[in-house]
Design goal:
This protein starts with a strand and ends with a helix. Strand 6 and strand 7 form a beta hairpin. The longest helix has 15 residues. It is of the alpha+beta class.
Length: 131
């Protein structure tokens, strides 16, 4: 999973999201360091705080998506980028990048997450540290 935040104390938002993942979703096995990055694919003066984690969960991919979306909503994220068709500043973003070695595709979830796994250098760097 890849987490990012760029408003309202991003580092604290990541910490809160990780605590919620541990208590509601599964065990975090490894995590990368936190890094700061500029926004990708949209303009903002707010810098992102990002981290990658490897998770052990009993949830299916769709259930996992539902669980992380519930955490995002509980933390105050109102609009998902896919729902509005554009990227914007966000209190928390939790992306499922890989799920074991499966390939999965639905309207709401595609695994592996192509952009973060292959196109975004900061994401590739973080993901490689937790594989």
């Amino acid at each position: 999973m890849l987490l990012g935040s760029n408003i309202n104390n991003p580092q604290k938002n990541i910490e809160i999201a990780l605590e919620n993942i541990e208590s509601k979703v599964g065990t975090i096995l490894t995590k990368s360091e936190l890094i700061l990055t500029k926004p990708v694919e949209f303009e903002s003066s707010n810098i992102f705080c990002n981290i990658a984690v490897k998770l052990k969960t009993q949830s299916s991919p769709i259930k996992l998506l539902s669980e992380v979306k519930a955490i995002e909503k509980m933390m105050g994220r109102v609009n998902d980028s896919s729902a509005i068709g554009a990227y914007q500043d966000r209190i928390i973003d939790i992306d499922i990048i890989l799920y074991n070695n499966i390939k999965f595709s639905s309207k709401k979830l595609i695994i592996p997450h192509q952009k973060n796994l292959y196109d975004r250098d900061f994401a590739k760097e973080l993901i490689n540290k937790v594989k």
